[in-house]
Amino acid sequence: MPGPIPMSYLRSPIGLGRAAVVLLGLVIAVDLFAVYADFSLYDVTGDLVNGATGEAVFRRTDAVVSLDSLAGKVQLGSLAVCVIGYLCWFVRVRANAGVFDPGEQSLQPWWAVVGWFVPFLNLWYPRGITLEIWDASGPEGTRRSHLLVNVWWTLWILSLIADWMGDLHYEERFGAGGNHAVAEFSLIADVAEIVAAALAILVVLRLTRMQHEKALARAGVRVEV
Asked: Is there a domain that residue 2 lies in?
């Protein structure tokens, strides 16, 4: 077991981890509402594509489009709040990983935030940073499986791709065919995001526990709550 780390301290990720879990749960709840809106839009625009007409159909279409628009706005707000909370936790566990095993971290700490927002780099940098934190936070001399992180990241990328595919049809938004395609891709994106958010909760819980257990096991390292 490594000796004490002079003049170094860890800060508990437990509080921020709980907050991140709650906010991810909020995203899941909002996404479930969005799935309902997506399915409603997919259903009604499918009727239009198949030739359905009449005042009742058009009134229902207007109502469903408004519901879908509302769902999108609520999703954006919940995701923005979740991003803030999640990144606060992510920065904390990255800092702790730098204490546990500085040599395991190939990127500067600020990449734990910036890496999520740089186009193209954000498709793999956050996953790579997470894996390095994961490896540094595990028990000394062991490596835990990366399966959970990899499946979570795959589902997250899938949701982004489906969202992007929906955006390609946005220019036809007010036509039945365009709305139908947008609803189809939005439905796929939201379902993938729900599963990704659920897996993200498991990542947060597992990594938080790993760091807490390792901090307790490291003699000479002060744990600050």
From this structure: no
User: Is position 93 within any domain?
Assistant: yes
Describe the chain by its helix, strand, coil percentages, rounded to 5: 75, 5, 20
- DSSP annotation of 191 reads H
Helix (H) or strand (E) holding 223: strand 222-224
For residues 112 and 129, the answer to whether their CB atoms sit within 8 Å is: yes
1 domain residue, yes or no: no
Into how many domains does the chain fold? 1
- The amino acid present at 202, given as its one-letter code, is L
Q: pLDDT tens for residues 82-137?
A: 999 999 999 999 999 999 988 889 999 999 999 999 999 999 999 999 999 999 99
CB environment 66-94: b (16+ within 10 A), e (fewer): ebbeebeebbeebbeebeebbbbbbbbbb
Give the span between the Cα atoms of 86 and 208, in whole angstroms: 12
